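cron nightly-structures :: item 1 of 1
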Amino acid sequence: MEIIRSFWMALKAAVSPLTAFLTGTTLVCCGYASLNSTFALQLNLSDTPMFVSGLVLACYYLGSITASLSAYKFINKVGNIRAFGLYLPALGSGPAARFYRQPVFVAVSAFRRRILHRHHQPVSGKLA
C-alpha cells in the first residue's frame, strides 16, 4: 500500500505543474475538432460531392501539417512574441470575415431545416 501511495504522490508532483498546459492543449484540441466538423457540415450543406469534400478536408489537413512543420523556422528566427503577433492578425482576419459574412446561427438553422425536411416528407399525398 505504501508503494502505491508513494507512486501516487510522485505522479501528483510531476503532473501538478503541467495542469495549465494540459488544460490549454485540451481546449485547443476541442476547438480544432469542432472546426473540422464545421467544415464537413458546410460542405455537406452545399451539396458538395463526397469525393470533393474528402479532397478539400485532406488538403486542409495537409496544409495544417505543413504549416506546423515549417513554422518553427520563422518562430526561431524572429522570436515567439513577434511571430504570434503576426499570426494573429494575419490568420484571425479570415474567420472573422467569414463570421460577419454568414453568421454561425444561419448555418445551424439551415442544417436543422434540411434535416427536418428530410425526415418529414409526405408519402405520395397520403397522411402518414
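cron nightly-structures :: done
Residues 50-78 form the longest helix (29 residues).
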